[in-house]
Amino acid sequence: MVEKPQIVKELAQVVDPEVGVPITEMDLVDDITIGADGIVSIGFHLTAPFCPPMFALEIAQDIKRRVSALDGVKDVKISMTGHFMAEEINRRVNTPPAPKT
After folding, report:
1. Fewer CB within 10 Å, N or C, the chain?
2. Which domains are seen in the chain, by residue range?
C-alpha cells in the first residue's frame, strides 16, 4: 500500500507553471487521504482564486497523473477549492475519459 511520504514526494514534483515553484513548497496541498481500497484523495488550493484556468487544470492533472503512477494506488480523487472554476476543473480531472470507439 502507498504511504503518505511517497505521495508528498511525488507532489513535490508538481510545479505551479506561473511561479515555477513546487506546490508543496507553497503549502498548497490541504489534505491527503489514503483509503484501504487504494483510492487516494488529495485536496489543494491555488495561490489565487482567479489563477488562469489552463494552469489550474494543468496542476490538477499533474497531481492526478503523478500520484496515480505510484504502486498501490488504484485511483486518485482531486478536490481543488477556492478557485472560481473549481467545480468544473474537479469534474474534468475526476471524470474518466470516454472509451475510444
Report:
1. C
2. 4-94 (3.30.300.130)
